[in-house]
From TrEMBL:
InterPro entries: Homeodomain-like_sf (IPR009057), HTH-type_TetR-like_transc_reg (IPR050109), HTH_TetR (IPR001647), Tet_transcr_reg_TetR-rel_C_sf (IPR036271), TetR_C_23 (IPR041673). This is Transcriptional regulator, TetR family. Residues 37-56 bind DNA. PANTHER family: HTH-TYPE TRANSCRIPTIONAL REGULATOR BETI, HTH-TYPE TRANSCRIPTIONAL REGULATOR RUTR. The lineage of its organism: Bacteria, Pseudomonadati, Acidobacteriota, Terriglobia, Terriglobales. Keywords: DNA-binding, Transcription, Transcription regulation. Residues 14-74 form the HTH tetR-type domain. It comes from Terriglobus roseus. One of its GO terms (molecular function) is transcription cis-regulatory region binding.
Length: 226
């Protein structure tokens, strides 16, 4: 194979993979993830089903590729946002709103996938298959906490990024089923809960709440296994 042939082959392979992924997202949004088939995805992409399976061995593999691509594409925007923000509420607002904006065009698909919450399901955001995506996502919350320089109880601080990630997931679930115009109710929920969250974290550091700090630390250790 010539020197110029290799890049050309790679480019064509990437283009084919892109075509399958785009076709799959369209089919999943129209038919629903469970009802859609790889044959329908291949037909939408204009290729044989065997060719589609060559690039993606299953529908699950397509969705995981979608998640990974989303994370890569949002990384630059999230890093730039964190570079501009110093307060925790500003950082969290930007992180979460960036994701709402990004996934907005695929909201039906995200809604269809929201039922996969069992950690044993490969597409669950809590599964072993998605651990690398989850851990990378939590790093943005870690940076937000570090930049805010909050004074937190030592037995609670290590768990805060994971708790903030869970807070984000709760907002996403509400957003998926929010039928208000442009999901305006989700916007209100985000603003109000952010204020409550930041206020709670500031109060939690006060000595008067030391008994609650101890209980919170014990609870978090029990939930996350130390």
């Amino acid at each position: 194979m010539s020197v110029t042939a290799a890049p050309t082959t790679q480019r064509k392979s990437e283009e084919t993979r892109r075509r399958i992924l785009d076709a799959a997202l369209e089919v999943f949004s129209e038919r629903g993830f469970e009802a859609a088939t790889m044959r329908e995805v291949a037909a939408k992409a204009g290729m044989a089903v065997g060719a589609a399976y060559y690039y993606f061995p299953s529908k699950d593999a397509i969705v995981l590729a979608f998640y990974e691509e989303a994370q890569q594409e949002m990384r630059t925007a999230l890093e730039a946002a964190l570079a501009r923000s110093r307060s925790l509420d500003a950082s969290l607002r930007t992180i979460i709103q960036t994701k709402f904006d990004y996934f907005g065009k695929n909201r039906p698909l995200v809604g269809a996938l929201a039922s996969h919450v069992d950690p044993k399901h490969p597409l669950s955001p809590f599964s072993a298959n998605t651990a690398h995506i989850r851990e990378q996502d939590q790093q943005f919350f870690e940076r937000a906490v570090e930049q805010a320089k909050l004074k937190l109880p030592k037995n609670v601080a290590p768990y805060l990024p994971r708790l903030l990630w869970m807070y984000q997931m709760g907002l996403f679930l509400f957003w998926i089923y929010d039928e208000s115009p442009e999901q305006s109710r989700t916007g209100v929920l985000l603003e109000k809960t952010l204020k409550m969250l930041v206020m709670t974290l500031k109060l939690a550091a006060l000595p008067i709440f030391r008994p609650f700090q101890k209980l919170a630390g014990e609870l978090l250790e029990a939930v996350y296994g130390g």
